[in-house]
Amino acid sequence: MAGAAISIPVRLSAAALSRPAAGKASPIKLGLASYTFRNFSRAQLIGFMKQLEVSGLNAKDVKDHLPTDATQESQAIADYTAADIHLHAAGAIYFLKDEDEDIRAKFEYCKRAGVTVIVAGDPTPASLPRVEKFVKEYDIRIAIHNHGPEDKLWQSPLDILKLVKNMDPRIGCCIDVGHTARAGTDVVEAIHEVGPRLFNMHMKDLADLKVKESQVAVGEGKMPVRAIFEALVANKYAGFVDLEYEIHADDPMPGVIRSFAYMRGVLAGMGNAKGNDTV
């Protein structure tokens, strides 16, 4: 693997990353959206994940995290495997063309990576039957990502659910909690509504649930994190909750550290031995 991971400018205290000795294993799996480290190389990303003790990755074609070129992708997969990092999802991948060739290329990309979930950005309603055809062929789930009030197609997970509820059960949602709240949808209610069609979650926090620019580290805003986790447990959600920390792109680690510490603390408070961020 080319390059070396850079040192994190914040010392990880025992309190930040420790797990309580007592309690049951958590049913919630914490992972990371690689977009969080979009300004950093794959080698640096792997170094950060090791220090965070996170092994589940939702990888995106940004920097060299998961290139679309087959040869380069193969090297990326080898690097992650060597580092004991599991690729559980890829995305967001944008489906902007209602064409077999374009859609197949995206499914092939994800098949090579061995991911079971494609986090999909903005497929048009008209293209969904064509996407469904490839879902059946490849047996890879599609989780359509909602992008809040600015999105012309999918503002809320409930918008997605209306159009996919009668389609193949492998077509569902990636709930982005920040965008969901800003769309005026109660995140906890959305989790219950989407139910078994929830395949991935992007976790973030907002100081003002209506303002995109108010993002803060998880636990420092108004997002009802414990209620979200409780809803996921009640629905027997088996996917990952991926931290997507979009601010401070050149120095994200301080906020990322605080976010994982808070989420692990919430899970511990729910009686779990640890925030299970492994496969």
Would you kindly provide a written description of the structure presented here, covering whatever features stand out?
The chain is built from ten helices and twelve strands. It is an alpha/beta fold. The chain has an eight-stranded parallel beta barrel with strand order 2-3-4-5-6-7-8-11, surrounded by six helices. The chain starts with 13 loop residues before the first helix and ends in a 5-residue tail after the last strand.
Q: Give the topology string: H per helix, E per strand.
A: HEEHEHEHEHEHEHHEEEHEHE
Given helix and strand content, the structural type is alpha/beta
| Spatial order of the strands forming the largest sheet | 2-3-4-5-6-7-8-11
Low-pLDDT ranges: 1-21
Assess the beta-strand content as a share of residues.
Answer: 15-25%
Helix content: 25-40%
The separation of the N and C termini measures 23 Å
Task: Outline the biggest β-sheet.
Answer: 8 strands, parallel, barrel
**Which descriptor suits the 3D outline?**
globular
Count of individual helical segments: 10
Radius of gyration of CA atoms, rounded to a whole number: 18 Å
Number of E-state strands: 12
Rounded average pLDDT: 91
SSE map:
Layout: H1 14-17, E1 24-25, E2 29-33, H2 42-52, E3 56-59, H3 70-82, E4 86-94, H4 100-113, E5 117-121, H5 128-138, E6 141-145, H6 157-164, E7 171-176, H7 177-182, H8 187-194, E8 198-203, E9 205-206, E10 215-216, H9 225-234, E11 240-243, H10 253-269, E12 272-274
Parallel strand pairs: 1-12, 2-3, 2-11, 3-4, 4-5, 5-6, 6-7, 7-8, 8-11
Antiparallel strand pairs: 9-10
